[in-house]
Design brief:
Distance between the termini: 22 Å
Helix content: 10-25%
Number of strands: 31
Largest sheet: 5 strands, antiparallel
Structural class: mainly beta
Oligomer: single chain
Shape: globular
Radius of gyration: 21 Å
Number of helices: 4
Strand order of the largest sheet: 1-28-27-26-25
Strand content: 35-45%
Length: 428
């Protein structure tokens, strides 16, 4: 297996972030050269049996790393089905399907089309509780919204339409943001169905909340408020960033449902700046959790602690950290320090974490499991990502545990098509 990208190479990439256009060109060229040199003789390797959701026609995937495709009760499995070749960027007019099947016999209990999707997160398809899931939709006369699906004891589906798309939700409430703005600033996570000439400079744009899915939406946090309470100061340009160049993204509700974290991202001369915040739903207060300019991926380990890949130049630079959202204390995770670079962490019972890596010089993505309690790490597998999947069409593994911690689900293109896969950790 070829070497991972070195710390020196990651530092160079870090400083090239100030020149995003040049970075993308140089990065892709460098990766092509390395792939031609280090191309492996296998497309995947694992000590576990790799099981897959494969259909005769189309490609399957689930989406982001923060949700389990398997239901809390363990009876059902969610996935997206695309007839469109996923090496092409998503289409605002060509829908994909949302599918729910029984795990025991593969029977389809729900299938509907949606135009509101992307390859990284799908339609934000996820379980709310035992037999209830949600996904986003688009109607030409209504715009973006969401569909809540209830499965009764006979696995018959009842639907409830909501007037806003959902980014994250739990049993008691749902949170929404602007997917139009996401498309404008980062198409990987936005949708393509709307009029792209929309004005995105509204300071009152923000995060909305609906309690008990009653479809009554309250603006709980705006771009205007976050700029007032935590003014932007970068490059000597105090509050000089247009609201059109700012967005909220990656909302993640805490396990106790009392707060959520999110990113406030903005762009200065093409350079992206990240700020990680926690919002307390009880006292309605904001708190900034990072002081440097890069935050990537994170996951709740428990109601007060996050595992975050971010930059902290006073500690260990770009690395995984443990962040206490109450005290603001930041700790390094020594076993991961300077070893793997960025990835997507997903946890079960606080200490057990599964995470992936971006492609190495052989275009192999690695999948790991770590026990943060005893600092033991093990590799679950490695999977190739051909250069034909790149940029917006990439296929990150996005690993996620099921609710019992016995399986790890992930998306991969090592077979030549995008498919949802899983590993049964009880069988090796």
């Amino acid at each position: 297996m070829a070497a991972r990208y070195s710390q020196k190479e990651r530092i160079i990439a870090k400083y090239l972030s100030a020149f995003p256009g040049a970075k993308q060109f140089l990065k892709k060229t460098y990766q092509w050269v390395n792939y031609l040199i280090y191309k492996p003789r296998y497309v995947f390797r694992s000590d576990y049996e790799i099981k897959s959701v494969v259909t005769p026609h189309g490609e399957t995937f689930f989406g982001y790393y923060d949700k389990s495709p398997e239901s809390p009760c363990g009876k059902y499995l969610l996935y997206h089905l695309s007839q469109r070749n996923t090496q092409n960027i998503p289409s605002g007019s060509e829908p994909i399907e949302v599918v729910c099947i029984r795990i025991d016999n593969g029977q389809t209990v729900y299938k509907q089309k949606t135009q509101a999707y992307n390859w990284q997160q799908g339609a934000r398809l996820h379980w709310i509780k035992e037999n209830t899931f949600v996904y986003n939709v688009f109607r030409a006369d209504e715009g973006y919204g969401a569909m809540v699906v209830f499965l009764n004891e006979k696995a018959e589906a009842e639907e409830l339409k909501l007037s806003k798309p959902i980014y994250d939700s739990c049993a008691g409430f749902a949170l929404s943001l602007s997917f139009e703005k996401l498309h404008n600033l980062r198409p990987d996570y936005g949708y393509r169905c709307h009029d792209i000439s929309l004005d995105h400079s509204n300071p009152e744009e923000g995060i909305y909340m609906s309690t008990n899915f009653d479809d009554k939406w309250e603006l709980i946090l705006s771009l205007k408020r976050i700029n007032q309470e935590y003014p932007i100061s970068t490059g000597g340009n105090e509050n000089g960033v247009s609201f059109a160049d700012q967005k909220f993204n990656h909302i993640m509700i805490s396990p106790d449902e009392g707060k959520f974290v999110f990113l406030h991202r903005y762009y200065v001369e093409g350079k992206r700046i990240d700020r990680l915040f926690v919002y307390d739903l009880v006292n309605k207060k904001l708190k900034l959790l990072n002081k440097d300019e890069m935050v990537s991926h994170y996951y709740w380990l428990n109601p007060i602690q996050l595992m975050v890949y971010m930059r902290d130049d006073d500690t260990a630079g770009d690395n995984y950290y443990l962040v206490d959202v109450h005290s603001g204390e930041i700790k390094t995770i020594d076993i991961l320090k300077d070893r793997f670079g960025d990835g997507h962490p997903n946890a079960h019972l606080e200490n057990l974490v599964v995470f992936d890596t971006y492609p190495n010089k052989s275009r192999l993505k690695e999948l790991f499991q770590i026990d943060l309690g005893n600092q033991q790490i093990s590799k679950l597998g490695e999977f190739i990502e051909p250069m034909s999947y790149y940029g917006e069409t990439r296929c990150d593994l996005h690993p996620r545990f099921n609710y019992t911690g016995t399986k790890v689900y992930f998306d991969s293109v090592h077979s030549g098509k995008r498919n949802q896969h899983w590993i049964d950790l009880t069988q090796k």
